[in-house]
Amino acid sequence: MKSILRNTKWGSALAWALPVLFLALFYFYPLGSIVLFAVQRFIGAGAGSLQTLNLAYFWRVFSFTVYQAALSTLLTVLLGLPAAYLFARYEFRGKMLLRSLSTIPFVLPTLVVAAAFNALFGPRGWANLAAINLLGFREAPFTLTNSLTAILIAHVFYNLTIVLRLVGDVWSRLDPRLTQAARCLGATTWQAFWKVTLPLLLPAIFSASLLVFIFDFTSFGVILILGGPRYATLEVEIYYQMTALFNFPTAVLLSLIQLGCTLGLTIIYNRLSEKLTRPLPLAGQKRVLTRLSKPSHKIFAFLVISFLIAFQVLPLLALVGRSVVYAGWERGERGLTTPTLSFAAYQEIFINRRASLFYIPPIRAIAISVTYGLMTILLGLGIGLAAAWFLSRQQESVVLERLRRWLEPLILLPLGTSSVTLGLGFLLAFGKPPLDLRSSPLLIPLAHTLVAFPFIVRSLLPALRSIRPRYHQAAAVLGATPWQIARRVDLPIIGRAVLVAGVFAFGISMGEFGATALLTRPEYPTLPIAIYRFLGQPGELNYGQAMALSVLLMTITAAGMILIERFRSGEVGEF
Amino acid sequence: MTHKTFFSLWKGSAILLVFSLMVAACTSPTPAPTPTPNPFLTVMTHDSFAATETVIAAFEREHQVKVQFLKAGDVGSALNKAILAKGNPLADVFYGVDNTFLSRALAEDLFEPYASPLLKEIPIIYQLDTQNRMLPVDYGDVCLNYERNYFAEKGIQPPKNLADLIKPEYKGLLVVQNPALSSPGLAFLLTTIGVYGTEGYLDYWKKLVENDVKVVNDWETAYYSEFSVHGGTRPIVVSYSSSPPAEVIFAEAPVDQPPTGVVTEDRSCFRQIEFVGILKGTKNRTMAEKWVDFMLSKTFQEDMPLQMFVFPVNPNAQLPDEFTRFVVIPSETAQVDPQAIEQNREAWIQAWSEAVLR
Question: What is the ipTM of this complex?
Fold first, then answer.
């Protein structure tokens, strides 16, 4: 018994050291470098460099940032819960496809999402064309850009899958006998949900809300492109201060404020979640899933599925449509247009017509993107599993327990950090010895892992925490070593969460643009980089090629996710 | 409990690993066959940089050097990158600073002077840095573009200058970019300052607002989502004078006329001049000089128009057919002193925001 304890201690120390080393090297070191640089600039330039920050203006930006993030999060959670329930409790045809499709938005670069929304709701999007040509509207009824509505819709579009996956995962493993017992004791369906299900789900809901909130709080592309110039978040202001005014002190100060908010929020969350989390009675998937038999269930499923299709899938389909249909505006028809079907853009992406040095063969961009994605999965799961395993259990040693409390809020920090600040920090830190990584192709998967890390840990934690200590004790009593316990007890239970984490890691890597654009080398372009290159030039065919590549990005990401989810077939019903 | 779960997970990871190694093996570039590696020259630039493969290869062959390109987002981000690495530069040469960023780049003391012999071929009006730390390479004119068909069908004249845009017949037709975040957006703001002066430009903008101007944050949204030639409804957009030839070259089906026209009269365009400079602290000064000479030479200058849709500053360079046919070079552009831009950029943008976005 004693030797096991000692082993656990060492194992825990190792599990703690791995993520800490990773964060220290690839997060705190670059962040520290840029802060130091800003301080030097501040001393060099004098106090004047901070004067550009007008307090009233700052307050307006700050409160808008919080306001839109809170509103977006609330909407995302409210809309995500019914879908999570449907996926957790019912078996129906096309479930896996729908789940994979609704994950795609999460990984799309913002310009692609903007293009998808434009294809659907733009002045000449499908919705408006239909309204004008079929319903007889004189003017386009939908205007989406430059509004708060656009921001909210885009944020829900992006982040619904976080709720769907994180909450859905826990929900699917809640033992239905609990609610059944409550019902037997006379509770109504609502009472059973309110008193039994919801309290058990709360940790997962909080976890998902926190991620969604931080995502929306640091939102950049959505605000920039869909929100328009009247709306600015802290992140947009940081970008402006940094790249237009070269005001490093102000930009870094704003980044630190943003970071402080994330940290504060995470600490509050951790306090809260420790009170709420309790080991969950587990159930196998098969036992939980029922077929849609009752009419009321069918209606519910129909509503949720329609919502998901309309909201998550339709914009994607509109984008696919836009990539092959040319409405022929330039030929002068207005109002009623004669759309023509053309695959010219798809052919064109394979041709280096201008013999450009920077031409990107699509296959190469795909290969590079997928390679980065897989490297992110391996790196992220390796470090993430260690971190989540360590965080999930109270440590017996006082020192380790204190370290555990320290580590938890740090995990989320990369997500709350301004990407332009961190990207420049990367350049500053890894552009010179001792760690000269500037020509290393590893730099990008490392950056992707950093972005994906919070998601990986958050996906794993609820599952790991739900493991009853009794199982460990039982296994230990039967003579299992800690390693055996991890292998034979923990891993089977968290198998599905590992897959969810893998999906996030892969998806985030496939779609990441901000850090990639700063750190990439022209020889190793990813798909999003290739898409942006085409979007930056005038001409129908350039736009078409950007759309074609976006469709490719979507397809490959979806294929990757379905493949990852396939691995899970062995797990169903085993426990 | 069975081990099946565990095995399937392991199997999955093993497949992933093997697959990723395979992909990595496929994508890793084949090693160069030359036994002695060429020295490297590193050029730092923005995302829009492009060149013909053979043109660069010819330079590499002639000088026995391998040219590497470092790209970092837009000009602002790329310049940030250079500022961060000051003294220990990431590259030998920086290309892409334009006249709106020129004074800032010079104030940051990033560049070494180099009086290229080719400067004598280049008109003095482009040589904005008298100490030759930054040498002009190309220019592009930010001008109003309009949809030809729209104005032909409505039977109204396309706008001729800035003053036309505030007339009632052009109400609700214009889309522009936010000068705080977009380079053509800033250029258009500077055009209005060049034409109406620092006292008058805000009044002009207020009239534009009354005439229902639409402001978006970036060129992509303005051009592809709002401009009526593509996904939008507004037939006038701020873009480049070289956009029409791009519309011809990148047309979905061959066309003999661009769908767009450009307004070039009465100083209604702003000229962005792009510069190249040798980064201070380079260990490759001789080769860097050769690269700068190369960028100013006829070969490279003639390659630029169809790769980057900009104009060569070297008058000896011939313009391609598409450019001579579809581009009008404005005889006079709006003028704003680079020093004044550097000093007032923030104040102008702030005043603009107050006037236009509130």
Answer: 0.83
